[in-house]
Fold this sequence. Notes:
CATH class of the largest domain: Alpha Beta
Bound molecules: adenosine-5'-triphosphate, magnesium ion
Largest sheet: 7 strands, parallel
CATH superfamily of the largest domain: P-loop containing nucleotide triphosphate hydrolases
Number of helices: 28
Radius of gyration: 28 Å
Helix content: 40-55%
Number of domains: 5
CATH topology of the largest domain: Rossmann fold
Amino acid sequence: MLEGLDPEQREVATALHGPVCVLAGAGTGKTRAITHRIAYGVRAGILQPSSVLAVTFTSRAAGEMRGRLRQLGAHGVQARTFHSAALRQLQYFWPKAIGGGMPRLVDRKIQLVADAAAACGTRLDRNELRDVTAEIEWSKVTQTVPADYPYAAAKAGREAPRDPAEIAHLYAAYEDLKRDRAVIDFEDVLLLTVAVLQDRHDVAEQVRAQYQHFVVDEYQDVSPLQQRLLELWLGDRDNLCVVGDAGQTIYSFTGATPDHLLDFCARHPGATVVKLVRDYRSTPQVVRLANGLLAQARGRAADHRLELVSQRPAGPEPGYTEYTDEPAEAEGAARRIRELIDAGVPAAEIAVLFRTNAQSETYEQALADAGVPYQLRGAERFFDRPEVRKAGVALRGAARFGGNDSLLDDAVDLPSQVRAVLSGEGWTSEPPAGSGAVRERWESLAALVNLAHDLAAARPGATLGDFVTELDERAGAQHAPTVQGVTLASLHAAKGLEWDVVFLVGVAEGMLPITYARTDEQIEEERRLLYVGVTRARERLHVSWALSRSPGGRANRRPSRFLDGLRPGTTPTAGRTGPAGGGGVERGSAGGPGAAPRRAQRTPARCRVCGRTLTDAGEMKLMRCEDCPSDMDEGLYERLRAWRAVQAERSGQPDFCVFTDRTLVAIAEAQPESPAELSRIPGVLSRKLRSYGADVLAICAGREPVGDGGSD
Ligand code: ATP
Ligand code: MG
């Protein structure tokens, strides 16, 4: 068990008692050290498997951990996310601690937010809906109640996707709706578990009697709420082992902080502290880029950086490719992936990582067009997928009545039996055309077919009954089979994981860092996200970006500032507006003429009074600096406000749902004379223009409103 570890990792694995803290960079074997630690303790008879609780952050990472533990023979150890561990406890203790059955967990939070918005008479587009949902989640993990949101959000420097007062209102409506429908959400699970453990000593004691040893992976991203839960689990004991890399803190936008990791020794004097620097994952070429990114990082996390030393043989240099537009970038990546697969690289060893989930669709389409299988959701909750459950039922039925099932008449070996049964569930030998849900279902079934092949190869005489048993065991351990497809994932979802080949796409200003990262801390978090992305690659890394969003669009993007000085032909001092560099950068050949200018400037929003470039959303809405003199017509502003009150009253929605104060100020300042002028005012969406445009223009022109509003 200890042979596959280096001396420092071995120190981690054998320190089975007392607090242990592992501070180490990406790919240095933190997860490996703790999984071996658990397995070693279990196999040496020192740890009771059922008394160990291992927690990590994403369900993918938890799945990965369960797989590794199972392979090491540590059966019966719980490896979960904070959420799923809390959920299990809450479900178990609910009748005793609260009474009755536990409310249903809402499965589509975003729909509930949409319903709450509708109840407020606010219509949110897809992106706004996602952003408002994120704000609600952030509020909950930081324990901010609706009324405090505007203040807390401003203090944390958050870019509210809407007027903060409006978000607070939506958040309150969301909480009400949840109560009315008797459901709870993901964040409530942690909040309620903490509350139960805090209030009920008998319950807390029961949990503590069950779990004696705690291991936390990715500890740099623990939120205050999760830390509280961990403390409640521990009580006054100190059998806690945490591992993390402050340089990979990427969830501070949700309230997480690396302080818990960095201050661990202060809180646990006498803790065993181990630092790992040998990087076993990536080639020296990938590691050089990772170290370069770290060297430019600033802030507390960066002060604790450890330079990585690759232990692997040399590999290819990271590639950098510039494309004219996003579809061309996706097509280029898909083409290369096709070539890699044709050359024998397994699809499951390739990943495409992006900054926002919205980028996924273009890549799904491009991969589908190139005939490349892909998986979106990863292996998490594989056994909970409806198609997998249905397939399980069908397989179980067939195993029971096998001999009498005409379906199986011609199927001699296990794989063909499984294929025959799954054909009835929608499995086909060739994947369905196109992307989306149909394709995802097919991939799940194909993974089951592959598993049958694996089992037949490992155990030649295996029967359908054996296969069903294997599935049950895996479901119990949540050990998902490998889905043979290229992984499409956000950088956030990719933490802790690794692939031979990684495509980091959309590495352009505006995406990385993302436009709404404004403060230095937010920019640093974006840099860490890129560091996480780079360090996922074992051998090959392809970095790319596109100069414009769509074909023929304005080429107003430039590669991410984080690459300055690291990719060939650039210098570190190039800064944010420096030349984009060139030498060594490959140009994507697909999509459109290469005539697009390399680096057209984005037209920045400028203050119409002093001309300063505006970056603050509120100021952009006003189209001037907050403290530049206002040339507003006060009388007009008051008339607009009075009209707004009537509209709000008539449609039964709050004032700000008609127009926010800021938008009214902007209108009163700009005094638009035509629909076109009015539509240029930020905050006047086409929907509002349709509903209220005629009224507003009439008021601005000094006439009576025509009264067509209120239908919104
Ligand atoms: P991250 O910070 O990204 O979570 P990590 O520190 O948890 O990374 P692991 O995922 O545990 O790193 O390990 C990275 C890779 O290096 C894995 O493939 C692992 O099997 C391999 N590895 C780690 N330690 C060793 C070792 N001592 N010998 C051989 N391979 C190792
Ligand atoms: Mg890890």
